[in-house]
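EI: anyone free to look at a 441-residue chain?
SC: sure, send it
EI:
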Amino acid sequence: MELTASTYLIMLLGLLFAGLFLGFPMAFTLGSSAVLAALVYSGPGMLAFAASQLYSGMLSIGLISLPLFVFIACLFERSGIAGEMFECFRQWLAGVHGSVAMATVVVCTIIAAFSGVSTAGVVTMGIIALPLMLRYGYNKSIASGSIMAGGALAILIPPSVSFIVYGMLTRVSIGKLFAGGIVPGLILALSYLVYINLRCRLNPELGPPVPAEDRVSFREKVRMTRGLLVPFLLILSILGTILIGAASPSEAAAIGAAVALLCVAAKRKLTLALLWESCDRTFRICNMVMWIIVGAKLFATMFVTVGAADLIRQFFLNLDVSPLVMVIIMQMTYIIMGCVTEEITMMCLTLPIYAPILASYGFDPVWFGVLFMINMQIGYLSPPFGYCLFYLKGVAPPEITTMDLYKSVWPFILIQATVVLLVIFFPQLTLWLPSNVLGLR
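SC: here you go
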C-alpha cells in the first residue's frame, strides 16, 4: 500500500517526538527518524540520495568561519580578558542602581560582537558576575535573567554563527545578514539596560549600587578603560572588514582569530595550556553543532522528498489571511518550536517550507532572517529546554535553582517579543543599514 505525504509527515514527527521524549540527543533523534522513514519510503537506496545531499551541504564555504569564531570566543573566555572588561564597566556604572547587572549586559553584548556563540557570554558572566551580584544582595531574577538575556544576544549580533548557517541554507549574503542584525541587537541590549535600571530604581533592594568601599578612583577607571582597546580592536578587525567589503565572513573570521591570538599574546596570557584548552573546547562545540546539522539535513531531505514540505506549504498558502499575518503565524511556530529544540534544527526543518512562500510574497530574506534570530533568543530563554537555562545552571552557585532561572526570564522574553513586533512592522530597522548605509548587495 502506497503511503500518502500526510502519513509520512505523521511518521516523521512521531519518530522525532518519541526520540525527544525518550531523552535521545537531538542530532541522533533527527538522523535516525530520517533513516527509518527513508527505509519505509523506498528501501536502502534512499539512504544514498540522502548521503549525497548531506555531503553537498557540508561543502558550503560559509561553514569554514564557524570554528574560527568559536575559537575566538573560547580564547577570550579562557584568557580572562572578558573578566577585565566586566570589571571596567562595573566600576564606571558603580553608582547606578542595577549597575552590576547592566555591566553584565554590556559585556555580553561585546562578547557577542566577537564570538558569535551564546555559550561564551552566559558561561563567562555566570562564573564572574553571578556570585558578585548575589554577594551584593541582588535579586536572583535580575541577576540570572540579565546574564541569560545578554548571552543570547550572540544569536543576533554579528558575527553570529547562526547567521552563517542561515545564509548557507538560504543562499543569502552573510554580510547583509550581519549588517541587518546590528540595529535590532543594539535595540535589545539597550532595552535590557533600561529595564534593569528602571526596575532597580523603583525597588532599590533588587539591585543596589556597588558599595562605596568596592569602588575605585577616577584615575583607576581610566586605566581600566585602556584594556577595552583589545576587544574593540578585535571587533573592528572582524565586523569592520566585512561591512566595508574588504573581506568575506570566512576571511574576516581568519583575520579575527589571528588578531585574537596577538591580543592574548600582547597581554602575556598566551600559553600552550590556554591554547590547548581553547582548541579542545572549540572542537567540542563545533562537533556538537555539526552533528546537529548532519541530523537536521537528513531529516529535512526526507521531509522534502516524501512530500511533507509541500503539504505544509499548501496549508500556509491556503490560509485566508494577509501575508503579514502569515509571517506572524510563522513567528508563533518558531516560539513554540523554540521550547523544545535549537535554531539550527529549526532552520533545516522550516526554511525549505517557509522560504518559497516568503519569496512568492516578496518578503526580504534578510528581514525574515533577523526576525528568526530574535525568535531564537526567545527559544534560548524559554522553559523547559532553553539552552541558556542549561548553560547558566551548569555554572551557577547551588542556591540558584532551576525554578529561579525559569522565573527570571519572563520580563526579558516580553522585551524580545516586543522587538519582534517592532521589526515586523518597521522592516527598515533591519534593511536600512545593509542597503542604504553600507551599500551591500
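EI: Residues 27-35+42-437 form one domain.
SC: 👍
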